[in-house]
Amino acid sequence: ELLQSIPAGPALPPLLKLLQTEKDRTIRMAAVRALGRSGNPLAVAALVNALRKDAGRAKDSPRRWAAYREALLALKIPAKTLLALLKDQAPQARLVGAQIAGRHKVPGVEKVLPGLLKDKRAAVVQAAAWACGALRIQSAQKRLRKLGYHKNWAIRLHAIVALGHLGGKKVAGPLASGARFRKSSAVKAAALL
After folding, report:
1. d(CA 21, CA 15)
2. pTM of structure
3. Residue 45: enclosing H or E segment and its boundaries?
4. Which end of the chain has a smaller Cβ tally under 10 Å, C or N?
């Protein structure tokens, strides 16, 4: 809590050191949040490097990846850096990149995001589907229609929501299938909206 109350401008060097060397996850995540509030673009590279480092050594933790996402969003991550995250080897980096892309449109994401709809990690596919819908990426519609029938209800849900944003005559099939989906009331509700 104390780290989060420190103005990050003058505390940038110590926060960057904490991010790079601290073993305690709670303290590292407090440093991530403080760096996000710093407004200092120099923090972007450090946060991306720490994200990659955490992705290689940590179990999946939605709260951890959310802290990175919110910090990078607050710092208005540059297009080149965001595109690199979307293509990163670490699935957690791709996940965070897709989540950011849906809220922070930058040139080039419309070419990269549809490819993430084929990712092996369900969370990455879900985030990419949501981002494609939020950005109205029509080139993703064919793949999203296939995902609208996916056996994983969460992937199906995100695809149906995205298709609802995209619209068009060809989305009727997946939306109708979603409306009849018995395993998840969320999928049914999304298809009916």
Report:
1. 10
2. 0.82
3. helix 42-57
4. N
